[in-house]
Predict the structure of DUF2325 domain-containing protein.
Amino acid sequence: MNAMLVGADTLGNIPDVLQSYGITIHRHLSGRNSSHQRKVDRLPAGTELLILFTDFLGHNVMRHFRELAAEQQIRFIACRRSACALKQSLTGAGMCEQPCAACPRRNEQAEGRRKR
């Protein structure tokens, strides 16, 4: 699954957490330059998940990206920039860490991707 990350100057161990869920970083925008973020009128092609790091974003920027995700029917999660908060949000969204073939949630996710 490809994800676009918005917020945070540095990601630290976030890429490792995402990899354990089978998610790759498709694109990352930091939370510093809001004019750069506002120029985005579409999420990049191939984006399947939008992750917003709330402690690095203003309300207007978050609203803008949530609206883009809704227009393109892309799932999004919002959380603080910490490994624990990200894991909690991903698990709450129905994603499994280190998915296995026997996992019922993985099968549901795979079928959901095929239906799109």
In short: The mean pLDDT is 83. DSSP finds five helices and four strands in the chain. Strands lie at 2-6, 24-29, 49-53, 75-79. Residues 67 and 103 are 32 Å apart (CA to CA).
